[in-house]
Write a structure and sequence with these properties.
The complex is a heterodimer. By secondary structure, chain A is an alpha+beta fold. Chain A is built from 16 helices and twelve strands. Chain B is built from 13 helices and 35 strands. Classes of the chains: A alpha+beta, B alpha+beta.
Chain lengths: 381, 600
């Protein structure tokens, strides 16, 4: 048996070998096992891409054709109450274009024990959500004689979240420049201008104060705890992944944002690649389009192989194409042409589109093989 | 307070919108307001909308008051006796027109039996729900809505007797059916529109069955004998026009047989059919390239010398001739004057059109199909009484489209033919299927209209009973004769040297970008190259400078404009379009240098 495994370790991927070994009866004869291996190898090698097969075009058509059947403009609730996530064609375009600002960023936050069973879930949710002073406010008074704003906070709300009002005072001071925030007695803050300020400024400040960020994570507009299988997951609208994974109750291994660039920034390019794959698959599955993941693997590899996420457009991967003719055959030809001329680029005519343009055999399929030996006219002596 | 809008323009307010609208309507019914003015009170905003603009669709309905129709028996009698007319009913406020706005606030009863006190209006006839052409579909209430709509669209394309003065008309692209018939299965709309004066179909025997698999995918099979007896025969008319135009400088076109000196003179043979006046004789048989109207025009650009030298040799040929692939008989020649007072000649061509493979036929139920086989009469299946179908229609067309009306049409046709009467198939108001089945039984047929049939080739009896009977079929104006097109070699465009586009220009069929992708995906590299060889050229390229070299035909050699005559010059094969883009690069002051290298 060991011999066989040795023999096929080069021919088959380890995953397939393991699967065969795990599924055959324990007392199988070597002869039978070999025939199984042989059959698997035959099947495996016949499903590999042939040399010279045009995988890119096949991928493009395999993704392109079903997306023409997708319903345009599908904004629907992604199985979650009140969190609106872009799906369908617009989302697909968004991912493939490599857009920096996606229309509906969202993070799925998985929680560590015991929170994932629902402990303190509302408190955790509140800790994530961006909160302005307005939610903790019960009164603002202006003292004209001392030019001071005194802010009365809502005690019960703060206690509900187990929150020290001094933190709020700190955050306000951070947000306001040139003002001093003092903690008076219980839940009262007084805000005073550093220099002599006039009353008008105070009135303006009063309105501004309400919108000041005091608690939670900036950028998280909405949080919805959802029960998924037997654990609780928090789904957000708006995203600030960097800050979210700093929280100690967050399961950093599974928490994931749908923003490719954010994931790249935090976890690196491999994570970004995986997010692209997962997000495209989610969109296609949502539309009921069965598509082999290998087509998407190819696309996501192309998008990320430079080390940065590039879109499938003229600013992204097309810009990086080595062929001048290939670049000018796709959008804004003049721009690309002049840039190429300035640096005196040479087109080696190595790829498909440029050979179609000049009408030469394209180097795929039957056009790929060439004679390697030079034909020499043998002169007989 | 309610805002009042006339044609969506705010004009003022009223105290109570509802009582205002009520008064508006009663005034209209008393003939004090125009019958086409409509009003609606929006339930949500209580705004009042009055519509008076043109272009709204309005339809007549009987006014209902307290659950009773205002149109009484007395009116019926008066109408019958011709004492009152339609306009009187409107003046009396018994019938009124509603548009889509006012319909919003109306509750319309379908039938007089359904009337309650809630109802505001009653349909004059349930048939009025659909339009005139849709109501031409018999048993339309047994079809699904979309099919009904498509069926009525098909009928518009039917060839028929479209105008009684057709010999005098010069309609472009018109067809005339030779033996039009009135349908056996009819409806009230056929009477109202006087369909018998301009019928557009024929009653033919249809067998719902398969025949050697030739009627898959909606194709229909025709009986050669039926065609020989005149089924579906039509004539195609198309006029060609020429006008003697006037140009600046007092120059004129001239309709005549062109002189041999004229630029672009074709050949004597092409002008052989023209009379002395330069126009063709009626009843002449013409084929492609034949000249119909001979014409010469003055030269396009005049230089200073030419003004004194307007001899015939500077004029150019501009005759009207038959397009590539066309033929016909000259039916009528019309000499007249155009709007500008120029001499205008119209020559109408006529071509008999016998049904052939690829012509389009349809029943009235969106069951259109293309002729796929014309069977010799001897091989056509026959019934026990010897009836042979004219058309064999596939049964698979009915199940997925759910056009039950199609089946009832056939059933009705059979009864009508046997009983010698017309069948009423008016939509929502037709004869009942049950009664028709009973009637058919009384004529000695199976009540489901099936019959025993025999194989026309072997004479064997089919094991199943075949649904067969007369049906009204239409020949549609889409005929292969006008569409058939193929090309191997042919004209090319001057600029790109690629084939021209379109049937009229004898063009090629484009292998587009996405089609190209499929060839790439298959790795069919050589096939792809061959397909794109239509503009293949061999261009001399200078080895040294890498640009297109100049061919000096007089000296019989090439030279490079940069490197001169001594440069090595290679003959390179490429697409002409690529040579063009190289030129375009040069026009941008870019230097597209081709680095030549041996392939081997």
């Amino acid at each position: 048996m060991e011999k066989l495994l040795e023999k096929y370790s080069d021919k088959l991927p380890q995953k397939l070998i393991d699967e065969i070994v795990n599924n055959v009866p324990k007392n199988i004869t070597d002869k039978k096992l070999e025939s199984i291996f042989e059959a698997v190898y035959k099947e495996y090698s016949s499903s590999l891409a042939e040399p010279g097969e045009c995988v890119g075009v096949v991928s493009a058509e395999s993704i392109g054709e079903p997306s023409t059947q997708m319903t345009l403009d599908t904004f629907h609730l992604a199985g979650v109450a009140e969190v609106n996530v872009t799906t369908g064609l617009p989302r697909l375009i968004e991912i493939l274009d490599g857009r920096k600002n996606i229309s509906t960023p969202s993070v799925e936050i998985y929680l560590k024990e015991p929170h994932n069973k629902g402990t303190d879930i509302t408190k955790i949710a509140a800790q994530i959500r961006e909160t302005t002073l307005r939610s903790f406010l019960s009164e603002i008074n202006i003292d004209i004689t001392t030019n001071t704003l005194s802010v009365l906070l809502n005690k019960s709300k703060l206690e509900e979240l187990d929150l020290d009002y001094k933190i709020i005072a700190k955050n306000i001071e951070k947000a306001l420049k040139g003002y001093k925030v003092k903690c008076e007695d219980d839940y009262v803050l007084s805000i005073k201008h550093n220099k002599e300020g006039n009353l008008n400024d105070l009135y303006k400040l009063k309105e501004k104060l309400k919108e000041i960020y005091v608690y939670g994570i900036k950028g998280i507009k909405q949080v919805v705890p959802v029960k998924r299988d037997d654990e609780y997951v928090i789904v957000t609208a708006g995203s600030n992944f960097k800050e979210i994974i700093k929280l100690d109750f967050v399961d950093t291994f599974r928490t994931c944002s749908n923003d490719v660039f954010e994931m790249e920034e935090v976890f690196g390019i491999e994570a970004a690649r995986q997010v692209i794959i997962n997000q495209i698959m989610t969109v296609l599955e949502g539309q009921g389009i069965p598509l082999d993941v290998r087509h998407i693997l190819l696309v996501s590899d192309t998008m990320t192989m430079s080390g940065h996420v590039l879109g499938i457009n003229r600013y992204g991967i097309v810009k990086d194409k080595p062929s001048v003719l290939a670049r000018i055959s796709f959008e804004t030809p003049l721009k690309h042409l002049i840039e190429a001329a300035l640096s005196g680029e040479v087109d080696n005519l190595k790829s498909v589109i440029e050979n179609v343009m000049i009408n030469q055999p394209i180097p795929v399929g039957t056009g790929l093989p060439h004679l390697i030996t030079r034909i020499v006219n043998e002169k007989k002596p | 307070m309610a805002d009042v809008f006339i044609d969506n323009k705010f004009i003022g307010t009223v105290k109570d919108g509802y009582s205002f609208a009520e008064r508006f309507i009663s005034e209209r019914r008393m003939n004090r307001l125009d019958a086409s003015a409509n009003i609606l009170v929006d339930k949500n905003t209580s705004n009042v909308y009055i519509e008076t603009s043109s272009g709204r669709t309005i339809r007549p309905l009987i006014v209902v008051k307290e659950g009773k129709s205002l149109l009484s028996k007395k009116h019926y009698e008066q109408l019958k006796a011709n004492e009152i007319a339609w306009s009187d009913l409107i003046k009396q406020g018994i019938i009124e027109y509603l548009d889509s706005t006012e319909e919003e606030g109306a509750l319309v009863a379908f039938d007089e039996k359904d009337l309650t006190t809630e109802h505001t209006h009653l349909e004059i006839s349930p048939t009025a729900i659909v339009g005139i052409i849709t109501a031409l579909v018999p048993f339309g209430h047994h079809n699904s809505g979309p099919r009904l709509l498509q069926g009525s669209k098909n009928q518009k394309q039917g060839i028929g007797f479209y105008a009684a003065n057709f010999p005098l008309r010069m309609d472009t692209d018109s067809n005339l059916l030779h033996y039009p018939q009135v349908p056996i299965v009819s409806s009230i709309l056929y009477d109202l529109t006087q369909y018998e004066k301009h019928p557009s179909g024929q009653n033919v025997i249809v067998a719902v069955m398969s025949y050697q698999g030739y009627n898959i995918e909606d194709a229909v099979i025709l009986n050669k004998g039926s065609i020989d007896r005149g089924f579906g025969r039509s004539t195609y008319f198309n006029p060609l026009v020429a006008e003697e135009l006037r140009y600046s400088g007092g120059l004129l076109d001239e309709i005549c047989i062109p002189d041999k000196e004229v630029k672009g003179y074709r050949s004597e043979k092409d002008y052989r059919l023209l009379d002395d006046d330069g126009i063709i004789t009626p009843e002449a048989y013409v084929k492609e390239e034949d000249v119909i109207i001979g014409k010469t025009s003055p030269p396009r650009f005049l230089n200073a010398m030419d003004e004194y030298n307007l001899a015939t040799n500077s004029r150019r040929e501009s005759s009207v001739s038959i397009a590539h692939g066309d033929q016909g008989i000259v039916d009528m020649v019309l000499l007249t004057e155009s709007e500008d007072g120029n001499k205008l000649i119209q020559v109408r061509l006529r071509e008999p059109r016998i049904p052939e493979l690829g012509d389009k036929f349809t029943s009235r139920h969106a069951q259109k199909g293309i002729v796929s086989l014309i069977v010799p009469e001897a091989d056509v299946p026959f019934t026990i009484t010897g009836v042979k179908p004219d058309i064999i229609f596939t049964a698979h067309g009915v199940v997925s489209r759910m056009t039950v009306g199609h089946l009832l049409d056939l059933l009705g046709g059979k009864i009508g033919a046997l009983g010698g009467r017309f069948i009423d198939g008016t939509i929502f108001d037709s004869e009942k299927e049950k009664d028709m089945r009973v009637e058919l039984l009384s004529y000695g047929f199976k009540e489901n209209a099936t019959e025993t049939m025999f194989n026309g080739v072997t004479g064997e009896e089919y094991k199943v009973k075949i649904f067969v009977g007369p049906m009204y079929y239409l020949r549609l104006k889409h005929q292969v004769r006008n569409k058939l097109h193929s090309r191997a070699l042919g004209p090319i465009q001057l600029l790109t040297r690629q084939p021209t586009e379109g049937r009229a220009k004898e063009g090629g069929l484009r292998l587009g970008e996405m089609e190209k992708d499929t060839l790439v995906a298959h790795g069919a590299s050589m096939l792809l190259k061959e397909r794109f060889d239509s503009d293949k050229t061999i261009i001399p390229i200078s080895d040294e400078s890498g640009i297109v070299a100049v061919h000096d035909a007089r000296k019989g050699r090439n030279y490079c404009p940069i490197a001169g005559e001594d440069a090595g010059i290679e003959q390179i094969e490429m697409s002409y379009a690529f040579k063009l883009i190289l030129d375009e690069f040069k026009s941008l002051c870019l230097y597209p240098k081709l680095n030549l290298k041996s392939k081997y």
